């Protein structure tokens, strides 16, 4: 088990106490509270996590939107969101920060993970009683083709970047995610996540993406759960699911048995180790 750099609390202007957390981040890193100082603070903290074993970053955003603003425009946006952001300004700031984080990953080698597409705290009644992050999180449709284009235009063909995409939108598997991962060197597809972390969800994923993205543009199975006792069972289910899919290919004479053995080992072990630089 390794830590990951998860900066959501200081990247999302719609989180309570955002400005105070940004000031704390900059103070911790010894940088001024300015656009340039804020970016440098992220670099300092990324190095801190790397020194303690982290090989990846993780970003949980409402959408997959990215942006690539001019430096002056990004700086002005930073100043505005510190004073209180509109919904559009918050979304644009998160979008810009995904591209900034991708550039930092090119520089420092940390693998980047993106987990978008959850409508969190959907029930106002439950939110009022229990507060945030107590359930009622619902998958939403997510656009990857248009949303990721600014980031991919900037660094998508840079082989120093590994960006692992997760989704809660199954309709994007074959239409968007597999073609994107099949063509952009920086992209890999993460395993089925959250609502689809199940036998049927994993089988639907593998059937939808493999013909276009292949096996080796996916990352096997990794685990970022806080429910530690579930980890052995979840990995066992993943291995059995992958082998069931491979067995079907062998039975249909689309894959030789020795090839299936090789791919099974990669999906259970090798691809995750490679993708996360372990």
Blueprint (SSEs and pairs):
Elements: H1 18-29, H2 35-51, E1 56-59, H3 71-82, H4 87-108, E2 111-114, E3 118-119, H5 124-130, E4 138-139, H6 149-155, E5 163-165, H7 172-183, E6 187-189, H8 199-213, H9 231-251, H10 257-275
Parallel strand pairs: 1-2, 2-5, 5-6
Antiparallel strand pairs: 3-4
Helix pairs in contact: 1-2, 3-4, 4-6, 7-8, 8-9, 9-10
Q: Uncertain runs with pLDDT below 50, 5 residues or more?
A: none
How much of the polypeptide forms β-strand, as a percent range?
A: 5-15%
Largest sheet properties: 4 strands, parallel
User: Count of helical segments?
Assistant: 10
The value of Rg in angstroms is 19 Å
* Helix coverage percent: 40-55%
- Derived from helix and strand composition plus strand pairing, the structural class reads alpha/beta
Strand order of the largest sheet: 1-2-5-6
The tally of strands reads 6
C-alpha end-to-end distance: 11 Å
